[in-house]
Write a structure and sequence with these properties.
CATH class of the largest domain: Alpha Beta
CATH superfamily of the largest domain: Ribosomal protein L17
Radius of gyration: 29 Å
Oligomer: single chain
Helix content: 55-70%
Number of strands: 3
Largest sheet: 3 strands, antiparallel
Shape: extended
Amino acid sequence: MRHKKGFNHLGRKSAHRKAMLANMANSLIEHKRINTTVAKAKALRGYVEPLITKSKTDSTHSRRIVFSYLKNKHAVSELFREVAPKVAGRPGGYTRIIKTGFRLGDGAEMAMIELVDFNEIYGQEENAATKTTRRSRRGGKKKAEETEAVEAAPSTEETPEVKAEEKSSEEDNNDEAEDDKDSK
């Protein structure tokens, strides 16, 4: 009976399962993204995330513990050199599982598992979203150009004149708005 057994055996004996997860973890660390079944991806997430957390502290002890799981010195060195500095500020959730459909041969549900901080597509969207500027709808382009001219003006003598022009243009806009209201 398997009462309260908290992990998926994946239809394998323990030695085969450990070897398979170690190989998949090595591939994930090396390639940053792999395609597999959903069940294997979920099992791999539980296997590799504690290793990534362990890699945040670069000591001989943590390197030996990670090596005992991965059994590949190139993957261990890449984990500690490249992956650990990128995930240093992240408190967990280092992997993302994206379902990709069903396999043609046997209909198994497939997924892509990837390291979150190594996806360039999501990182570019976040950077693009932070670089956008907010403009009010009242001023339009004229006000934006005037504020850019004020910021670009090097001398302090021109700024009172520009401010006077801004006030007069605001008064003109207010007069036009009042005229529009009266005409309706």
